[in-house]
Amino acid sequence: MADTATVPAAPRAPLAFRLGASPAQIAALALVALFLIAFLVVPIVRVIQIAFTGVDGRFSLVNFGDFFQTSLSRESFWNSVYVSAMTVVVASIIAVPLATIISRFRFRGAALIHTLGVIPLVMPPFVGAVAMQLIYGRNGSINLLLHEFFGFRIPFMEGLNGVIFVEAVHYFPFILLNLSAALSNIDSAMEESAQNLGASGFSLFRKIVFPLALPGYVAGAALVFVKVFDDLATPLLLSVTNMLAPQAYLRITSVGVSDPQGYVISVIMIVCALTTIGLSQLALRGRDFSTQQRGGGGLARRKLGKGGTWLATAFVILTLLIVLSPHIGILLLSFGTVWSFAVLPDGYTLDHYTTIAREAGPYITNTLLYCGIAGFIDVVLASIIAYVVLRTRLKGRHLVEQMAMAAIAIPGLVLGIGLLRTYYDVHLPTGESLATFWGMLVIAYAVRRLPYALVSAKAALRQLHVHLEEAAESLGAGKFTTLTKIVVPLMTGGLLAGFVTSFATAAVELSATLILVTRPPDAPISYGIYIYMQAAAGRGPGAALGVIAVLVVAVATFLSYRLAERERDLKSREGVF
Amino acid sequence: MAASVSIENISFGYGGALVLNDVSLAIEPGEYFCFLGPSGSGKTTLLRLVAGFGTPSQGRILIGGKDVTHLPPWERNLGMVFQSYALWPHMTVAKNVAFGLERRKLSRAEINSKVKAALERVGLAHLADRRPAQLSGGQQQRVALARTLVIEPAVLLLDEPLSNLDAKLRTEMRVELKRLQRDLGITTIYVTHDQEEANAAAGRIAVLDGGKIQQIGSPVDMYDHPANRFVAAFLGTANLIEGKIESDRFLADGIVLYAVKAPPGPACVSIRPQHIAVQASGIGLPGVVEEREFLGETTRYRIKAGSHRLIVDEPHRRDIEPREVGALVGLSVDTKQVSILRG
Predict the structure, then answer these.
(1) What is the fold of A20-49+62-574?
(2) pTM of the complete model
């Protein structure tokens, strides 16, 4: 033992080093994990658990048996699949030609098409649904004109057609944006080398352009499918109830929180969302070429012939009219006196706006409050996760990140049901149920939007070279000073963009909202629009409220776009590094 | 204020792989010391451990005699200049330079005068209100240097400081760095993979490879007396020949060197290309010219002698007739210049 006495014991490495992160970082991540477990994992597990529990309280498939034995349930399931698939088809009919025109040809209206791609996204589909009914419905403007001049009608809005039409007009930009991004990533040198080797015309398209553009298309199409499958408000406003989301909603709200069928449908919806995302990723495995080649200016743009220009112009104008029709419709409806069995409203008035000003103030302030808080929570949670994932070696950090990202596959309706069921019997000191407390709505918004905020935060932090932090540390700044003086100021742009995205999308969310709002004074603007729109007399004020919501989202979207631009500028000026 | 740096038995690894393996060295106060090695040799990791970015799995680091192994970077008072310069894009040049002083809670007046002096020292006082993105690469480098020196660090750490500059600026900055270091008398550690940079600047060099120190010494000393094959080949060009020593002779296939003073047994010798003279066939070792490159100052030949291909540099003069490829020549080696390698 004399040996050990002569060798001085090596000082033990500090705890922080062995764990790979400082105590503050560990505590922050633990809080985030706790939040996600409480408000995402537990509610979803609860939903799944109830779906698989029989009357005797044991594991059982009996609820699923019941579901598939009821003809209404089977019909609803197939209707949801049919509507989602047909929406992808109709959206593709709109989006594929537009994407082709902007990326393959020199076309003067290209900027117009880009704008076209963003316009529908600033208005949620359910807001436009009623206006679309008035324009394309059986006794809407278009069919009245058709009937008067040609003696026939087109059933745009009959039953499921209506849902497909409204959703396709709203969601086609997802395909347009993804596909045109994929097309512009194809280097013209790839096309030229194929031509050089003897390929041209259709074989060029089939062998080169199509396979290279496919990943973008599939990504967009899968997104559309999932979004439509989960949408609750649009079918409800069009009085279509024989689909999955409306069925789940009706079971929970009319039969009660304990009715197992709502949970069975929730599980089916999660499985469908996961299957779609999984299949699209499987189909694309090893085929994501977008990041391999850089610097290509996209495909060589050809000049369009006279006929081609004419055809393209006509198509773009027609699409523009259809895409703008819900916006125009909602604007007309908000200023119109009576609009029924007529091509246009009978007269114009500001009454609906005065009604809104009188009655709907709380809706607007609630939305600003809820979505503001939700956006703030998202930015904080996303920054913590991004920082811990990218800057520490803490065990379990990737698990927390995956938990946060999983929210993307959970329909709002399902999360709403899960939260309601989990927290219904937990009471606040005031005696109010935690599930119906307005704060729960904020949490639902925050959980659902977290993935988007996380993507922004990670991108912002990735741009920030770790040397910038180390330089501060070596000059005497501790972790906290480095965070406040260096990291946060440099991430501000990206974080603000994340905040605005969370805010804007939460402002028009209606699936979880419908489930969790019980008292109108607590309701946000999306709920207000829905309530007004349900009664014929409320359509005018509902439309006016819709216009206000669209303006809020449009301003927010514009702001986040500007922020992103500014960030890009800043980054490009740093190109000296 | 110049401090010594003492690195004692440092080992460091990332998940199983050992990046540094039992590294020890001592740097005197005021010394200009260089870590030189190829990429992956562990030189930057060693510098980062000195700076406090990471904790060694074994061993300790002393600065000015004080054990700093478990001290975080912000308590070490060292100045590090990063390869990317790491200037903060949201602050002006003056703000960047003032940052370290603000952390040290100096008065505003003191900070202002020190920032001004630091920027004057690097010749950038007129750019104090610019943003880093508005500066050229060389100017950014100077700001990074001013920001580091203004806190009067105990040791200056430079991580490949010239690698982002173009060739002309690089030579200029190299001279300027050396002048600054001499004027301030600050202990400096300079990391590079470029032996020319290391030779020109440093008083002493530690050559690293595979996470181990291969040799420590002055540039001339190591060039003339490389400790092993790696150092011989890494510092300049060397002909490494495997053979054996027998009664003061070195023997290899087709090569005999006389008057080699070393104990008998297997050995490897290192001969620099300029220490072999090309002569008429019949004098010295017989060889055949296989390739010839005219490089300006010298003509470089590749000459086959026995089974060995030797690189031979001949200083160029107008009155020397170049040897043709395929020509038979005689080679003579200046045995006093030959190194016998052990590792």
Answers:
(1) MetI-like fold (1.10.3720)
(2) 0.77
